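Structure in, sequence out. Go:
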């Protein structure tokens, strides 16, 4: 048997001289399997960006309306249950009049502290200075010419701090907060709405918002329990792109494995005459197989080195926040193709026989 160092030296010689077509196979493997891996990473990046859009449009936010029947502490405590990322309650109170526009009433709501996280998730560009004070919409902030941290004068002479600014764009969502003031208050008393932000989008977890109602509602009072509604239903009830993600990864892995196997098997099949001739000239079968596997490792190394920056770019394209998830999904596809390549090489080599040398020569 040939020693280990000589095996690698022989494989390197085949690569440099082109005798094993290693570079050609590496390019074919990179173009085929690498394309599949890049496609998966790119799809993951797109799903990530669409997910941001789905959340910022308020499609993952659910609202339960039940005047005076929402328990604020129970509603706030839903945050972290299942896939609920944030939860908060609110109620309508008397209008607010600012000194800068004393004749214009501004809708005002009181909310539990947890509501800010709901607003931040469903409202792009939400800004807060993490201090006590009211929250207002960006349109109202623009009208008043103020920013978080400033002090606002009210018509009655009072002064309040501006703690945060959030947006409520006209993108199909409910516009209760379109031009409003939100004042955070302790989670006590009767509230009219409970809002939750569910991500990943799970309609079944959305029903958990009913736990924000007062205990016994519906059973003892005979009152009909309201159904939770999406803040914005224009994008559909579920995030369909997210549902397709796992299927795309599975198809990519399977396709890459089959492609890698085909490339590896075809590579050995095309070299069957040379390999059979080497066996006939006295090279032992195990050593020859190790040389071929060493050549296959060059193919894999070439593909990984070239694909890595391409996969990284595809995964993070467009500022996708889950870029590493997309990158590693593509890498899984590439590694699946690598496994297929190795299996194809082994199976192909296993079918090469020294006794068939004449037949290979005749059919070359």
């Amino acid at each position: 048997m040939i020693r280990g160092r000589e095996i690698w030296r022989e494989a390197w010689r085949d690569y440099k001289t082109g005798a094993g077509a290693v570079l050609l196979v590496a390019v074919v493997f990179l173009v085929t399997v690498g394309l599949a891996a890049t496609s998966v990473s790119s799809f993951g990046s797109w799903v990530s960006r669409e997910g941001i859009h789905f959340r910022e449009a308020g499609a993952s936010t659910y609202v339960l309306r039940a005047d005076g029947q929402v328990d604020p502490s129970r509603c706030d405590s839903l945050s972290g249950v299942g896939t609920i990322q944030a939860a908060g309650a609110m109620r309508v109170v008397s209008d607010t009049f600012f000194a800068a526009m004393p004749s214009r009433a501004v809708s005002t709501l009181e909310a539990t502290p947890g509501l800010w996280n709901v607003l931040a998730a469903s409202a792009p560009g939400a800004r807060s200075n993490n201090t006590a004070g009211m929250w207002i919409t960006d349109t109202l902030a623009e009208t008043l010419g103020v920013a978080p941290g400033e002090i606002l004068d009210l018509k009655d002479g009072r002064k309040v701090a501006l703690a945060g600014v959030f947006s409520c764009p006209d993108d199909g969502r409910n516009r209760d907060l379109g031009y409003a003031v939100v004042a955070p208050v302790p989670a006590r008393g009767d509230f009219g709405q409970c809002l939750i932000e569910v991500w990943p989008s799970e309609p079944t977890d959305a029903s958990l918002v009913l736990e924000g109602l007062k205990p016994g509602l519906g059973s003892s009072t005979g009152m009909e329990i309201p159904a939770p509604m999406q803040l914005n239903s224009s994008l559909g009830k579920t995030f369909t792109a997210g549902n397709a993600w796992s299927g795309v990864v599975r198809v990519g892995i399977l396709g890459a494995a089959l492609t890698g196997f085909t490339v590896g098997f075809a590579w050995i099949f095309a070299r069957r005459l040379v390999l059979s001739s080497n066996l006939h000239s006295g090279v032992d079968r195990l050593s020859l197989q190790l040389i071929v596997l060493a050549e296959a490792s060059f193919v894999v190394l070439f593909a990984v080195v070239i694909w890595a920056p391409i996969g990284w770019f595809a995964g993070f394209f467009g500022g996708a926040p889950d870029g590493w998830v997309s990158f590693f999904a593509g890498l899984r596809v590439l590694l699946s193709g690598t496994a297929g390549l190795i299996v194809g090489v082994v199976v192909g080599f296993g079918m090469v026989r020294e006794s068939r040398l004449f037949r290979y020569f005749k059919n070359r």
